[in-house]
Design goal:
Number of domains: 1
Strand content: 15-25%
Number of helices: 4
Shape: globular
CATH topology: Transcription Regulator spoIIAA
Helix content: 40-55%
Radius of gyration: 13 Å
Strand order of the largest sheet: 1-2-3-4-5-6
CATH superfamily: STAS domain
Largest sheet: 6 strands, mixed
Structural class: alpha/beta
Number of strands: 6
Length: about 120
């Protein structure tokens, strides 16, 4: 399964949904992020999807609206016993996530392969 959305591409690999933002998820894009978020949450209605990887390899920045969406996605994934991780996070965003403690909610991995291995091991 692969769907191309304006801001975030979604694809499935086994029981894992992989989301790849295609552009920076800035606060000025609030309405677009919210609208796409509804569709992404709907994808998680599929009981076969257990884990979620967010791959930031195509972008450098995400704001608080995107973090709110990620929190909703994490809640859905955790409710079914799955894991959610981030990969390819820019050094600047990784530093912010470490300093604020957000990295404990969304573990950071250096590559998509490492992220997929981490959720598979759970």
């Amino acid at each position: 399964m692969s769907t191309a959305a304006k801001m975030i591409q979604a694809e499935r690999q086994g029981n894992t949904l992989i989301l790849t933002p295609q552009e920076d998820l800035r606060e000025l894009e609030y309405q677009e992020i919210t609208a796409e978020g509804e569709g992404l949450l709907h994808l998680l209605d599929d009981p076969a999807i257990r884990n979620l990887v967010v791959d930031f390899g195509q972008t450098d920045y995400f704001g608080s609206t995107a973090l709110g969406l990620f929190a909703q996605l994490r809640q859905r994934v955790r409710a079914r016993g799955g894991r959610m991780v981030f990969c390819n996070v820019s050094p600047h965003e990784a530093e912010i996530m470490e300093v604020t403690g957000l990295a404990r909610f969304w573990p950071l991995h250096p590559s998509r392969e490492a992220a997929l291995a981490a959720v598979s091991a759970a």
